[in-house]
Amino acid sequence: MRSLILTVFWMATLVAGISVRAQTPLSKLERVQLFGKEYIRLDDWAESNDFQLKWIRQDELIQVKTRYSTLRFEVDSRRAEINGIAVWLSVTVARRNGSVYISPLDLQTAVFPVLYPPRNTDEAKVTSICLDPGHGGKTRETKPARRRRRSTSSRSLKRSGNNFAAPVSPSP
């Protein structure tokens, strides 16, 4: 019986180790100074986290992909796309000597929160929700006329049971 329990425990540990892979800490990757900013090689980061690199448009757009996530970075630009979400990075993605470089700060602040979102614990309660009435669109209520947007937002708040704080008027 004891050996059966140990075998099951060992197999569960093995399966958990295979299915869950922690991201490689950025501190273990070589840092390079380019254009007065700190960078790491994108291919080093990708390889250490089991991503595959592929040029979509040679020297312009590079894709970093796993089975579950797709990241696209425009070279010499701050624009990126993470799982279809457009993101503006703090520092330009650089290319030098055939390698693409990304700021570790951008990985920490823009990429990781989307790829590895923190779990909400039971103790943490949502206390605020921000509603944006919209800016444009095809329906009459969402056209840029401020009065229509404001009245649409007010009606939505009234329908919700008025469980929200007073609406803030749009700035002029």
- Per DSSP E runs of 2 or more residues, the count of β-strands stands at 8
**What shape does the CA trace take?**
elongated
State the order of secondary-structure elements, H for helix, E for strand.
HEEHEEEEEEHH
Strand percent estimate? 25-35%
Query: What proportion of the residues is helical, as a percent range?
Result: 25-40%
Mean pLDDT: 75
Task: Give unreliable regions as ranges.
Answer: 4-21
Supply the CATH class of the domain at 24-115. Answer: Alpha Beta
Written description of the protein model:
This protein is 30% helix and 27% strand. The longest helix has 18 residues, at 2-19. The protein has four helices and eight strands; from the N terminus they run αββαββββββαα. It starts with a helix and ends in a 13-residue tail after the last helix. An eight-stranded antiparallel beta sheet has the order 1-2-8-7-6-5-4-3. The protein has a domain at 24-115: Copper amine oxidase-like, N-terminal domain (Copper Amine Oxidase, Chain A, domain 1, 2-Layer Sandwich). It has 172 residues and is α+β, with helices and mostly antiparallel strands. The radius of gyration is 23 Å and the shape is elongated. Strand 1 (31-34) and strand 2 (37-41) form a beta hairpin.
Name the descriptors.
single chain, 172 residues, Copper Amine Oxidase, Chain A, domain 1, 8-stranded antiparallel sheet, 8 strands, elongated
Fold topology:
Layout: H1 2-19, E1 31-34, E2 37-41, H2 42-48, E3 52-57, E4 61-65, E5 70-74, E6 77-82, E7 85-96, E8 99-102, H3 104-115, H4 146-159
Antiparallel strand pairs: 1-2, 2-8, 3-4, 4-5, 5-6, 6-7, 7-8
